[in-house]
Structures are given as C-alpha cells and as structure tokens.
Specification:
Length: 279
C-alpha cells in the first residue's frame, strides 16, 4: 500500500474517534461546508494544515454534501529548505498543492513595531485575494481545539475581555467570502499522535527571522505560555480545557458585568432596575 493510502486509512480507522469524527462534527454542527461550496484549503506547511487537507479530501470522497476544494500554499519568502519540505510532504500525502509567491517577508523585514501582527494581517489579505481569484467562496484554516482555548485565555489574561476564535467568520473586506475552521473540535495531542504514528515531519515555524525554529517550538511566545497553563490546568482537572470551551457556549448574561455588541458596550446596570420593576 502506498504511504498516502496508509495515512488516509489511519485518519478513517485508527484516528476516527479523535480526529475524523470530530472534524465531521464541526463541519456539521457549525455548518461550515454546504452544497456546491468551493473551498480554498490553506496549507502553511505544518501538521495542522496538512491534516486538514487530508480530512477535506476524505470528506469530498465519502461525504454526502458535494463541494470542491483547491489546496493552496502561499510562499511569503520561505528559504529553500522549508519550501522543499512543503513540496515533498505534499507529494507524500498526495495533495495537489498550488503555490503562489508573495513578498510578505521582504515587507515585514522593514517593520520595527509588531512585525508578527503585520505579517499575519498581510497573509490573510493575500489569501483572501487568492481565493477570489480562484473563484472560491470559503477559506479553510487549520486552527484546532487547543488554538481556541489558548486564544480565549490570551484574551482574558492579556486583553481583559472574554472572546474566542470562532468556527467561521464572514470577511469584512471581501464580500461573499467566509473563513472556516473545520478542525475546531480536534485536540492538538491527537494531531501530534497522527503525525508521529505515520512518521511524518512538518515545518513548524518558517519565519525568515527565526530560521532556527523551523523544526521546534518557539519557547518565548505568549501562546506558548498558554499551552503550559492549559497543561497545568489539566493536571488539576482533566476536563479543564473542555470546560473552558463549553463555557463560551453557555454564557449566563444575567451574571456578567457588561457585554459588547458591534463595539458598543452595555453595563448590567442598564437593565438592573427594570428587572426589579418586572417582578
């Protein structure tokens, strides 16, 4: 059996419970993919986006909803090693990638303040433009369950607000385009296990300015802090991450100090006396 077929079989069989079923649940529960959608699957070169591509391929083959997909890699200025690794992995996994170049790394290298933030924004803009060019109406990213929890804690601990990474979003600047996250319910530990079980190696950080971390984690980021925090919380309560996730789907508006909708803040005091009069 060819390696890519073994890899596909592992997703459907060995990792059916921890990966494929949760992928299918997210697609269904959040209505991420509909009939006749044309999805641009964004592949960064890491384990998450490559797994997403394989899950999308399996859904096209075996799912009830008919849709199409394009597997796109944006090269923002990778070095030769990282570019070659992405191309080699695409061949191993039997994913028909389409690569297009951008000058993001060159532009960001001239920026002193918040280069990572600017890089992320520019990437998103290039990807939306490419999706429009290809006639796609949805962009699929490889964010997973742990990304959702980390984002939530980052917002609380460093942003002083409760918000999370949503399973899908309408684009503000590109009409008719949606961003979707089909691995929303898949835990990172399952993805790592899938990668290791199939003896695969992916790039992790391909930033030109941190070339040395191409195969290791960046140990200095705030997101790394959140990973460690969640790891410690799981030691206290094995369901801590799930409970954080579930609390975002179970917000009791009677017991919060204030809420914000479309940028407009509303204090609990606005309706406090009205509730007393209605008793």
């Amino acid at each position: 059996m060819e390696k890519y077929k073994e890899i596909e079989r592992s997703i459907i069989k060995k990792y059916r419970k921890d990966i494929f079923s949760k992928f299918i649940k997210a697609v269904s529960e959040y209505e991420l993919i509909k009939e006749n959608d044309n999805v641009m699957v964004c592949i960064s070169g890491g384990k998450d986006s490559f797994l997403l591509a394989k899950c999308i391929q399996e859904l096209i083959r075996h799912g009830k909803v008919k849709f199409s997909a394009r597997y796109v890699v944006m090269d923002p200025g990778y070095n030769e090693y990282n570019r070659a690794m992405i191309e080699d992995n695409a061949k191993i996994l039997n994913i028909p990638i389409e690569i297009f170049e951008s000058d993001i790394f060159d532009v960001v290298s001239q920026i002193d303040s918040s280069p990572c933030y600017m890089c992320a924004r520019m990437r998103r803009g290039f990807l939306y433009s490419k999706a429009k060019e290809l006639g796609c109406n949805k962009i699929a990213l490889g964010h997973h369950f742990d990304d959702v929890i980390e984002t939530t804690l980052l917002s609380m601990l460093y942003g002083s607000e409760i918000k999370t990474m949503m399973p899908k979003l309408h684009s503000d600047n590109f009409e008719g385009l949606e961003l979707i996250r089909p691995l929303y319910l898949v835990k990172e530990e399952a993805i790592i296990s899938w990668r290791n079980s199939n003896e695969l190696t992916f790039i992790n950080c391909a930033c030109r300015f941190t070339e040395g971390c191409s195969l290791i984690n960046d140990g200095t980021s705030k997101r790394k802090e959140m990973k460690e925090l969640i790891k410690n919380l799981r030691k206290i309560n094995k369901n801590a991450d799930y409970n954080i996730f579930k609390s975002l789907d179970n917000v009791n508006l009677d017991c919060v100090l204030g809420t914000k909708t479309n940028g407009v803040y509303k204090s609990f005091l606005a309706d406090y006396d009205k509730k007393d009069k209605n008793k």
